[in-house]
TrEMBL record:
Belongs to the PPR family. P subfamily. It comes from the Eukaryota. It comes from Citrus sinensis. The keyword Repeat applies. This is Pentacotripeptide-repeat region of PRORP domain-containing protein. SUPFAM superfamilies: TPR-like. Keywords: Repeat. PROSITE patterns: PPR. Pfam families: PPR (PF01535), PPR_2 (PF13041). InterPro entries: PPR_rpt (IPR002885), TPR-like_helical_dom_sf (IPR011990). The keyword Repeat applies.
Length: 353
């Protein structure tokens, strides 16, 4: 993909098309997304050599690229260059970007100074700026600032959107302020125009993590009564809870409900690779061939190609249980799965008539 983008940019140069920062920004964004941040400084130098004026997006991508290779001082120099240049004013997104870089580097004092700059530059009371402030203060562990910004957001936006409550409650849960999260949730619940299952899921997840299954179940049913049916995430939370607590039947049942519910956009919901590995590891340890095969039937609803990470533990489960499967080799061939030498040896005992 990057080669095609690079070729297109070269073609534009050959045609002497008038350039702005946009095509360069697009290429730099592509480099960042494909794991090649080290290529971005060369694009910046090319822009400078061609007298193409950077915009705030250019500076933000450049800062991110330097941070990705652990050059924090380089990201700081970008801010200084931006100030010296004077043609592009740093806005709140610039300092949100810088604060995020500092947070990821564990430089919380510098992050909070950048957040103060962000706040000062939010003259137009942009909702996204408030939400970034809450999230980033949360990541620094500064609960008092999280609440202070939340009060400012509520004053600026009295009809506070579901997404703002979702963000705030998630931050409070992450900071282990469950009483504060409950209070915020009740405030949202009492005044929301639309009962949003995503907000409820944050509290369900918090209760499940604390082992408070009864509270989580009660909240799920309350949401249903308010017209918000459980989504895939809801069922995933309950599946994870039962999985952690060793109730495999209920864990599998909830996972199947998540798969059957699907994504909100109509697409398939697919459990994470780690979740699949955890289930398969359990079946192998318990020598539960029937459980493993039943789990695979459920997975097939969501996953087109099951792959080696499913079939190798399945083979080991058959071997551990002393069970045979004359069709296993045929299944592997149909699924186009190539297993390890160790699994091939086990197949010799499993695939007998």
């Amino acid at each position: 993909m990057t080669e095609k983008a690079e070729a297109l940019l070269e073609k534009m140069k050959e045609l002497n098309l008038g350039f702005s920062s946009m095509p360069f920004n697009s290429l730099m964004t592509l480099y960042a997304k494909t794991g090649h941040p080290e290529k971005i400084p060369a694009i910046i130098q090319e822009m400078k050599a061609s007298s193409i004026m950077p915009d705030s997006y250019t500076y933000n991508v450049w800062m991110r690229a330097l941070a990705a290779v652990n050059d924090i001082s380089g990201a700081e120099r970008v801010i200084e260059e931006m100030k010296r240049d004077g043609r592009v004013a740093a806005d709140w997104t610039t300092f949100s970007n810088l604060a995020s870089i500092y947070v990821e580097a564990g430089l919380f004092e510098k992050a909070e100074r950048a957040l103060k700059e962000l706040e000062n530059r939010n003259a137009h009371r942009d909702l996204s700026a408030y939400q970034f402030l809450i999230t980033l203060y949360g990541q620094t562990g500064n609960l008092s600032e999280v609440y202070r910004i939340w009060r400012s957001l509520r004053l600026a936006f009295p009809n506070t959107a579901n997404i703002s409550y979702l963000n705030m409650i998630q931050v409070l849960v992450n900071l282990k302020d469950l009483p504060g999260a409950e209070k915020c949730f009740k405030e949202w619940e009492s005044g929301c125009a639309t009962y949003d299952i995503r907000v409820t899921n944050v509290m369900i997840g918090a209760y499940a993590k604390e082992g408070r299954l009864e509270n989580a179940e009660e909240l799920k049913e309350r949401a249903r009564r308010r017209g918000a049916d459980p989504n895939a995430k809801t069922w995933e939370i309950f599946s994870d809870y039962y999985l952690r607590n060793g109730d495999m039947k209920l864990a599998v049942d909830c996972l199947e409900k998540a798969i059957d519910t699907g994504r909100g956009d109509g697409g398939k919901w697919v459990p994470s690779s780690e979740t699949i590995r955890t289930f398969m590891r359990h079946f192998e340890q318990e020598k539960d061939v029937d459980g493993a095969e039943g789990f695979l039937e459920i997975l097939k609803k969501a996953v087109d190609d099951l792959g080696v990470e499913v079939f190798e533990p399945l083979i080991r489960t058959y071997a551990a249980a002393g069970r045979t499967s004359p069709v296993m080799l045929r299944r592997l061939k149909m699924e186009k799965v190539e297993v390890s030498e160790a699994s091939k040896k086990l197949l010799e005992a499993i695939c007998v008539e």
